[in-house]
Write a structure and sequence with these properties.
The chain is mainly alpha-helical. The protein is built from 2 helices and 2 strands; from the N terminus they run H-E-E-H. It has helices at about 1-15, 35-60, and strands at about 25, 35. It has a two-stranded antiparallel sheet.
Length: about 70
Protein backbone atom coordinates (compact mmCIF):
# COMPACT_ATOMS: atom_id res chain seq x y z
CA UNK A 1 0.00 0.00 0.00
CA UNK A 2 2.76 2.43 0.88
CA UNK A 3 4.53 1.84 -2.44
CA UNK A 4 1.27 2.37 -4.33
CA UNK A 5 0.76 5.68 -2.52
CA UNK A 6 4.15 6.93 -3.70
CA UNK A 7 3.06 7.07 -7.35
CA UNK A 8 -0.30 8.57 -6.40
CA UNK A 9 1.43 11.30 -4.37
CA UNK A 10 3.88 11.94 -7.22
CA UNK A 11 0.91 12.39 -9.58
CA UNK A 12 -0.71 14.78 -7.11
CA UNK A 13 2.53 16.75 -6.77
CA UNK A 14 2.65 17.10 -10.57
CA UNK A 15 -0.96 18.36 -10.61
CA UNK A 16 -0.16 20.94 -7.93
CA UNK A 17 2.89 22.23 -9.83
CA UNK A 18 2.76 26.02 -9.94
CA UNK A 19 0.27 26.42 -7.09
CA UNK A 20 1.22 28.14 -3.85
CA UNK A 21 0.83 25.19 -1.47
CA UNK A 22 0.50 27.47 1.53
CA UNK A 23 -2.71 28.98 0.13
CA UNK A 24 -4.43 25.64 -0.56
CA UNK A 25 -6.29 24.73 2.63
CA UNK A 26 -7.73 21.31 3.38
CA UNK A 27 -9.83 20.48 6.46
CA UNK A 28 -8.70 17.65 8.72
CA UNK A 29 -11.25 16.07 11.09
CA UNK A 30 -8.86 15.93 14.05
CA UNK A 31 -6.18 18.57 13.60
CA UNK A 32 -8.27 21.14 11.76
CA UNK A 33 -7.38 22.95 8.54
CA UNK A 34 -3.91 22.48 7.12
CA UNK A 35 -2.40 23.99 4.01
CA UNK A 36 -1.15 21.61 1.32
CA UNK A 37 2.48 21.87 2.47
CA UNK A 38 1.51 20.99 6.05
CA UNK A 39 -0.63 18.11 4.75
CA UNK A 40 2.28 16.68 2.73
CA UNK A 41 4.53 16.93 5.79
CA UNK A 42 1.88 15.16 7.88
CA UNK A 43 1.55 12.37 5.29
CA UNK A 44 5.35 11.92 5.13
CA UNK A 45 5.66 11.54 8.91
CA UNK A 46 2.61 9.27 9.04
CA UNK A 47 3.91 6.98 6.26
CA UNK A 48 7.38 6.80 7.84
CA UNK A 49 5.78 5.77 11.12
CA UNK A 50 3.94 2.90 9.44
CA UNK A 51 7.08 1.82 7.55
CA UNK A 52 8.94 1.62 10.88
CA UNK A 53 6.10 -0.40 12.41
CA UNK A 54 6.20 -2.88 9.51
CA UNK A 55 9.97 -3.27 9.75
CA UNK A 56 9.65 -3.98 13.48
CA UNK A 57 6.98 -6.61 12.82
CA UNK A 58 9.03 -8.27 10.09
CA UNK A 59 12.03 -8.39 12.44
CA UNK A 60 10.04 -10.13 15.18
CA UNK A 61 11.08 -13.74 15.87
CA UNK A 62 7.46 -14.86 15.44
CA UNK A 63 7.06 -13.30 12.00
CA UNK A 64 6.68 -15.98 9.30
CA UNK A 65 9.82 -16.42 7.19
CA UNK A 66 9.66 -17.25 3.50
Amino acid sequence: MLKAQNSMLADLAAELEGFDLETLLYPHPISGPMDARQRFDFLRVHMLRHQKQMQELKGDAGFPKG
